[in-house]
Amino acid sequence: MSSNIVSSSWEVIQGIFEESIPFNKSLDIKVSDLESGNPKLYVDMQEQFVGNFVRGNLHGGVIATLLDVIGGMIAFVDVVHRKNFNTFDEKIKQFSRMGTINIRIDYLRPGHGSQFTASGYVLRTGNSVAVTRMDLHNEENLLIAAGTGTYTVGLRSETLLSSQSNWIWGETEGWQKNWNYPN
């Protein structure tokens, strides 16, 4: 398979994380380094993200979301690389099998800053579960929070957790949930 096809499927998956997951889009999460196996998330501080109006720091829920999203993304990328999934369909099928089992977050200091970066790495991936370690830093590289996440990776099961027909491709909108699909 050519590098352009593999690369472009990573670009589409990046677009899915940024644009097709409504909650990620509402936070204006930006993704980088997805294909490399060391993805990072970036979010700029916004007025609606303030958790303590006196101190003006980032809300703990936004911190938890960023750590959960990067943890799942790291687990996803690790599985894709381990199983040598190259096609977009293989990657989307794997993505549909994933979900958060548990996350633990340690809030280490108030989330002061103008931009925050989430990163992490895989501690272990098995046939059913992946465990990741995640960090959130501000633009001064101060560690704001650290977490550990456990994610289903569904490598054993050949059945999808949800039918792919729940999702439709729109030429201008990208991947979107088909809300008219009967569950």
Written description of the protein model:
With 183 residues, this protein is α+β, with helices and mostly antiparallel strands. It has one domain: Hotdog Thioesterase (Thiol Ester Dehydrase, Chain A), CATH 3.10.129. The strands form 3 sheets. The chain has a 6-stranded antiparallel sheet with strand order 1-2-6-7-8-5. The N terminus is likely disordered.
Please name the defining characteristics of this protein.
single chain; 183 residues; alpha+beta; Thiol Ester Dehydrase, Chain A; 6-stranded antiparallel β-sheet; two-stranded antiparallel sheet; 4 helices; 31% helix; globular; disordered N terminus
Q: Which range best describes the helical content: under 10%, 10-25%, 25-40%, 40-55%, 55-70% or over 70%? A: 25-40%
How do the helices and strands follow one another from N- to C-terminus? HHEEEEHHEEEEEE
- Straight-line distance between termini: 35 Å
Low-confidence stretches at least 5 residues in length (pLDDT < 50)?
1-6, 157-165
C-alpha Rg (nearest Å): 17 Å
**Biggest sheet statistics:** 6 strands, antiparallel
Report strand %. Answer: 25-35%
What is the CATH homology-level superfamily?
A: Hotdog Thioesterase
Q: Which structural class do you get from the secondary structure elements?
A: alpha+beta
Summarize, please.
This protein is of the alpha+beta class and 183 residues long. The chain is built from four helices and ten strands; from the N terminus they run ααββββααββββββ.
